[in-house]
Write a structure and sequence with these properties.
Elements (H helix, E strand, L loop, with lengths): L4 E2 L6 E2 L10 E4 L4 E4 L3 E2 L4 E4 H4 L13 E7 L2 E2 L3 H7 L1 E8 L3 E2 L2 E2 L6 E2 L11 E7 L2 E6 L9 E6 L4 E4 L4 E6 L7 E7 L4 E2 L1 H5 L5 E5 L5 E5 L8 E4 L15 H7 L14 H5 L4
Parallel strand pairs: 1-22, 15-22
Antiparallel strand pairs: 2-3, 3-4, 5-8, 6-7, 7-9, 9-18, 10-11, 12-19, 13-16, 13-18, 14-15, 14-17, 20-21
Protein backbone atom coordinates (compact mmCIF):
# COMPACT_ATOMS: atom_id res chain seq x y z
CA UNK A 1 0.00 0.00 0.00
CA UNK A 2 1.38 3.40 -1.00
CA UNK A 3 0.60 6.82 0.40
CA UNK A 4 -1.48 9.32 -1.54
CA UNK A 5 -1.59 13.10 -1.51
CA UNK A 6 -4.45 15.44 -0.62
CA UNK A 7 -4.14 18.87 -2.18
CA UNK A 8 -7.50 19.58 -0.55
CA UNK A 9 -10.84 17.82 0.04
CA UNK A 10 -14.00 19.89 -0.34
CA UNK A 11 -16.26 19.04 1.98
CA UNK A 12 -41.12 11.26 -8.68
CA UNK A 13 -38.94 13.78 -6.67
CA UNK A 14 -36.56 16.45 -7.90
CA UNK A 15 -33.14 15.22 -8.91
CA UNK A 16 -31.55 18.20 -7.25
CA UNK A 17 -31.84 19.99 -3.93
CA UNK A 18 -28.84 22.27 -4.27
CA UNK A 19 -28.02 22.80 -7.94
CA UNK A 20 -30.26 23.58 -10.92
CA UNK A 21 -28.95 21.92 -14.11
CA UNK A 22 -31.32 23.89 -16.33
CA UNK A 23 -33.30 20.80 -17.36
CA UNK A 24 -36.70 19.67 -16.06
CA UNK A 25 -35.74 16.12 -15.15
CA UNK A 26 -37.04 14.23 -12.11
CA UNK A 27 -35.65 11.25 -10.24
CA UNK A 28 -37.76 8.11 -9.91
CA UNK A 29 -36.67 6.12 -6.87
CA UNK A 30 -38.33 2.76 -7.65
CA UNK A 31 -37.35 1.46 -10.11
CA UNK A 32 -34.43 3.84 -10.21
CA UNK A 33 -34.63 6.14 -13.21
CA UNK A 34 -35.79 9.51 -14.54
CA UNK A 35 -38.93 11.36 -15.59
CA UNK A 36 -38.92 14.11 -18.20
CA UNK A 37 -40.85 17.35 -17.87
CA UNK A 38 -42.53 19.37 -20.63
CA UNK A 39 -40.23 20.14 -23.53
CA UNK A 40 -37.65 17.51 -22.51
CA UNK A 41 -36.77 14.41 -24.51
CA UNK A 42 -35.06 11.32 -23.11
CA UNK A 43 -34.86 7.54 -23.47
CA UNK A 44 -35.85 4.62 -21.31
CA UNK A 45 -33.07 4.19 -18.77
CA UNK A 46 -30.42 1.48 -18.88
CA UNK A 47 -29.74 -0.14 -15.51
CA UNK A 48 -26.39 -1.59 -14.45
CA UNK A 49 -26.60 -4.45 -11.99
CA UNK A 50 -23.98 -5.54 -9.48
CA UNK A 51 -23.22 -8.63 -11.55
CA UNK A 52 -22.46 -6.36 -14.54
CA UNK A 53 -19.68 -4.45 -12.77
CA UNK A 54 -18.31 -7.07 -10.36
CA UNK A 55 -15.17 -7.74 -12.46
CA UNK A 56 -13.97 -4.18 -11.85
CA UNK A 57 -14.33 -4.33 -8.04
CA UNK A 58 -11.69 -5.12 -5.45
CA UNK A 59 -14.01 -7.88 -4.17
CA UNK A 60 -16.00 -9.29 -7.11
CA UNK A 61 -18.12 -11.34 -4.68
CA UNK A 62 -19.16 -8.41 -2.48
CA UNK A 63 -22.73 -7.66 -1.41
CA UNK A 64 -24.51 -4.52 -2.56
CA UNK A 65 -27.67 -3.18 -4.22
CA UNK A 66 -28.87 -5.25 -7.18
CA UNK A 67 -29.21 -2.15 -9.38
CA UNK A 68 -26.08 -0.07 -8.87
CA UNK A 69 -26.88 2.81 -11.21
CA UNK A 70 -29.27 3.92 -13.96
CA UNK A 71 -28.29 5.79 -17.13
CA UNK A 72 -30.26 7.95 -19.57
CA UNK A 73 -28.06 8.72 -22.57
CA UNK A 74 -29.27 11.45 -24.95
CA UNK A 75 -31.52 13.82 -23.01
CA UNK A 76 -32.14 17.51 -23.57
CA UNK A 77 -34.63 20.14 -24.65
CA UNK A 78 -36.68 19.17 -27.68
CA UNK A 79 -35.86 22.48 -29.33
CA UNK A 80 -32.16 21.55 -29.28
CA UNK A 81 -32.47 17.99 -30.61
CA UNK A 82 -31.57 18.80 -34.22
CA UNK A 83 -28.66 21.01 -33.15
CA UNK A 84 -27.26 18.35 -30.83
CA UNK A 85 -27.37 15.78 -33.62
CA UNK A 86 -25.67 18.10 -36.09
CA UNK A 87 -22.90 18.86 -33.56
CA UNK A 88 -22.39 15.15 -32.77
CA UNK A 89 -22.97 16.10 -29.12
CA UNK A 90 -24.92 14.13 -26.53
CA UNK A 91 -26.02 14.84 -22.96
CA UNK A 92 -26.39 11.97 -20.51
CA UNK A 93 -27.73 11.69 -16.96
CA UNK A 94 -26.80 9.05 -14.37
CA UNK A 95 -28.06 8.32 -10.86
CA UNK A 96 -26.52 5.94 -8.32
CA UNK A 97 -28.07 3.84 -5.60
CA UNK A 98 -27.35 4.55 -1.96
CA UNK A 99 -25.32 2.02 0.01
CA UNK A 100 -22.00 0.26 -0.54
CA UNK A 101 -20.40 -2.51 -2.57
CA UNK A 102 -18.92 -4.44 0.32
CA UNK A 103 -16.48 -1.90 1.78
CA UNK A 104 -16.24 -0.08 -1.55
CA UNK A 105 -18.45 2.85 -2.57
CA UNK A 106 -21.08 2.70 -5.27
CA UNK A 107 -19.16 3.41 -8.46
CA UNK A 108 -18.96 2.85 -12.17
CA UNK A 109 -16.69 0.42 -13.95
CA UNK A 110 -13.36 1.88 -14.90
CA UNK A 111 -13.09 2.38 -18.65
CA UNK A 112 -11.62 4.41 -21.49
CA UNK A 113 -13.77 6.04 -24.16
CA UNK A 114 -13.47 4.29 -27.49
CA UNK A 115 -11.95 6.05 -30.48
CA UNK A 116 -14.77 7.79 -32.33
CA UNK A 117 -14.95 7.52 -36.12
CA UNK A 118 -16.13 11.15 -36.14
CA UNK A 119 -12.83 12.54 -34.79
CA UNK A 120 -10.50 9.50 -34.77
CA UNK A 121 -9.86 10.35 -31.11
CA UNK A 122 -10.88 8.87 -27.82
CA UNK A 123 -13.21 11.62 -26.60
CA UNK A 124 -13.37 13.64 -23.35
CA UNK A 125 -16.33 13.88 -20.99
CA UNK A 126 -17.64 16.92 -19.11
CA UNK A 127 -19.26 15.97 -15.79
CA UNK A 128 -21.54 18.18 -13.72
CA UNK A 129 -22.64 17.04 -10.26
CA UNK A 130 -26.34 17.58 -9.51
CA UNK A 131 -26.72 15.97 -6.08
CA UNK A 132 -24.72 13.87 -3.64
CA UNK A 133 -20.94 13.77 -3.26
CA UNK A 134 -18.76 12.59 -6.14
CA UNK A 135 -15.20 11.57 -6.76
CA UNK A 136 -14.16 11.44 -10.40
CA UNK A 137 -11.15 9.13 -10.44
CA UNK A 138 -8.87 9.16 -13.50
CA UNK A 139 -5.53 7.69 -14.54
CA UNK A 140 -3.55 8.34 -17.72
CA UNK A 141 -3.28 4.75 -18.87
CA UNK A 142 -4.95 1.37 -18.34
CA UNK A 143 -1.55 -0.30 -18.63
CA UNK A 144 0.94 -1.67 -16.08
CA UNK A 145 2.17 1.88 -15.51
CA UNK A 146 -1.03 3.91 -14.88
CA UNK A 147 0.76 7.25 -15.23
CA UNK A 148 -0.66 10.21 -13.35
CA UNK A 149 -3.59 9.36 -11.07
CA UNK A 150 -6.14 11.86 -9.72
CA UNK A 151 -9.17 11.68 -7.46
CA UNK A 152 -11.23 14.84 -7.99
CA UNK A 153 -13.71 15.52 -5.17
CA UNK A 154 -16.83 17.31 -6.42
CA UNK A 155 -20.08 18.64 -4.94
CA UNK A 156 -23.34 19.84 -6.54
CA UNK A 157 -22.61 22.43 -9.20
CA UNK A 158 -18.99 21.37 -9.69
CA UNK A 159 -17.70 20.48 -13.15
CA UNK A 160 -15.00 17.86 -13.75
CA UNK A 161 -13.49 17.02 -17.13
CA UNK A 162 -11.94 13.68 -18.07
CA UNK A 163 -9.54 14.13 -21.00
CA UNK A 164 -9.22 11.91 -24.09
CA UNK A 165 -7.70 8.43 -23.66
CA UNK A 166 -7.68 8.46 -19.82
CA UNK A 167 -9.18 5.59 -17.83
CA UNK A 168 -11.73 6.81 -15.29
CA UNK A 169 -14.49 5.86 -12.87
CA UNK A 170 -17.20 7.84 -11.09
CA UNK A 171 -17.55 7.22 -7.36
CA UNK A 172 -20.27 8.10 -4.84
CA UNK A 173 -18.42 9.35 -1.75
CA UNK A 174 -21.41 9.30 0.63
CA UNK A 175 -23.24 5.98 1.10
CA UNK A 176 -26.30 7.76 2.53
CA UNK A 177 -26.89 10.11 -0.42
CA UNK A 178 -27.67 9.12 -4.00
CA UNK A 179 -25.28 10.65 -6.50
CA UNK A 180 -26.78 12.16 -9.64
CA UNK A 181 -24.88 13.91 -12.41
CA UNK A 182 -25.10 15.03 -16.03
CA UNK A 183 -22.38 14.89 -18.67
CA UNK A 184 -21.59 16.08 -22.18
CA UNK A 185 -20.33 13.22 -24.36
CA UNK A 186 -19.57 12.46 -27.98
CA UNK A 187 -22.68 11.12 -29.72
CA UNK A 188 -20.69 8.08 -30.81
CA UNK A 189 -19.84 7.22 -27.20
CA UNK A 190 -18.54 3.78 -26.33
CA UNK A 191 -16.48 2.18 -23.59
CA UNK A 192 -13.31 0.08 -23.62
CA UNK A 193 -12.97 -2.07 -20.49
CA UNK A 194 -10.20 -4.47 -21.46
CA UNK A 195 -7.20 -2.72 -19.88
CA UNK A 196 -8.92 -2.00 -16.57
CA UNK A 197 -10.37 -5.50 -16.29
CA UNK A 198 -6.98 -7.02 -17.10
CA UNK A 199 -5.68 -5.28 -13.96
CA UNK A 200 -8.70 -6.22 -11.81
CA UNK A 201 -9.89 -2.60 -11.71
CA UNK A 202 -8.46 0.89 -11.47
CA UNK A 203 -4.99 1.58 -10.02
CA UNK A 204 -6.41 2.86 -6.69
CA UNK A 205 -9.36 1.22 -4.96
CA UNK A 206 -11.64 3.54 -2.94
CA UNK A 207 -12.84 1.96 0.31
CA UNK A 208 -14.82 3.18 3.31
CA UNK A 209 -13.24 3.24 6.76
CA UNK A 210 -15.23 2.80 9.99
CA UNK A 211 -16.33 6.48 9.81
CA UNK A 212 -17.55 6.11 6.21
CA UNK A 213 -14.66 8.24 4.96
CA UNK A 214 -13.03 7.27 1.66
CA UNK A 215 -9.54 5.80 1.91
CA UNK A 216 -7.46 4.60 -1.03
CA UNK A 217 -5.73 1.24 -1.46
CA UNK A 218 -3.19 0.73 -4.21
CA UNK A 219 -4.03 -2.02 -6.70
CA UNK A 220 -0.98 -4.35 -6.77
CA UNK A 221 -1.71 -5.32 -10.39
CA UNK A 222 -0.18 -1.99 -11.46
CA UNK A 223 3.28 -0.54 -11.01
CA UNK A 224 3.57 1.77 -7.96
CA UNK A 225 2.01 5.19 -8.50
CA UNK A 226 1.02 8.33 -6.62
CA UNK A 227 -2.60 9.42 -6.21
CA UNK A 228 -3.35 13.15 -6.01
CA UNK A 229 -6.67 14.04 -4.36
CA UNK A 230 -7.92 17.51 -5.26
CA UNK A 231 -10.80 19.85 -6.04
CA UNK A 232 -11.87 20.44 -9.65
CA UNK A 233 -9.92 22.83 -11.86
CA UNK A 234 -11.77 25.89 -13.17
CA UNK A 235 -11.48 24.96 -16.89
CA UNK A 236 -11.82 28.62 -17.86
CA UNK A 237 -9.68 27.99 -20.91
CA UNK A 238 -12.40 25.65 -22.20
CA UNK A 239 -15.16 28.22 -21.65
CA UNK A 240 -16.61 26.60 -18.51
CA UNK A 241 -18.36 29.23 -16.40
CA UNK A 242 -18.65 29.23 -12.63
CA UNK A 243 -22.19 29.10 -11.21
CA UNK A 244 -23.73 28.29 -14.61
CA UNK A 245 -24.88 24.82 -15.60
CA UNK A 246 -23.16 23.21 -18.54
CA UNK A 247 -26.51 22.87 -20.32
CA UNK A 248 -27.23 26.59 -19.88
CA UNK A 249 -23.72 27.34 -21.15
CA UNK A 250 -24.55 25.25 -24.23
CA UNK A 251 -27.81 27.18 -24.72
CA UNK A 252 -25.92 30.50 -24.65
CA UNK A 253 -23.01 29.35 -26.82
CA UNK A 254 -23.26 25.83 -28.27
CA UNK A 255 -19.76 26.03 -29.74
CA UNK A 256 -18.32 25.98 -26.20
CA UNK A 257 -18.53 22.19 -26.25
CA UNK A 258 -17.24 21.52 -29.75
CA UNK A 259 -14.13 20.08 -28.07
CA UNK A 260 -16.17 17.10 -26.82
CA UNK A 261 -16.88 15.46 -30.21
CA UNK A 262 -13.79 17.11 -31.74
CA UNK A 263 -11.08 16.96 -29.04
CA UNK A 264 -8.32 17.57 -31.58
CA UNK A 265 -9.19 21.29 -31.60
CA UNK A 266 -7.80 21.46 -28.05
CA UNK A 267 -4.84 19.13 -28.62
CA UNK A 268 -2.33 21.42 -26.90
CA UNK A 269 -4.61 21.77 -23.88
CA UNK A 270 -4.81 18.00 -23.38
CA UNK A 271 -1.01 17.73 -23.41
CA UNK A 272 -0.76 19.86 -20.26
CA UNK A 273 -4.05 18.80 -18.71
CA UNK A 274 -4.55 18.78 -14.94
CA UNK A 275 -8.12 18.00 -13.77
Amino acid sequence: MKSYLHEDKPGVSPVINVFDPGLDIGLIEEPMGFSYGPGIFGPQVERRKLKDISKSLMDPDCAGPDIVYSIAMDVGKIKHKELLNSMHLLYGVVTYATGKLGIEPIRSQGHIHKVSSFSNWSTPEVYEIWSGEAIIYMQEYAEDNPGRCFAVYANPGDVVIVPPYWAHATISANPDKPLTFGAWCDREYGFVYEGVRKHNGIAWYPVFDELNEIQWLENPAYQPSELICKSPADYLELGIKKDKSIYCTFEEDPETFLFVPSPQIKEEYWRRFIP
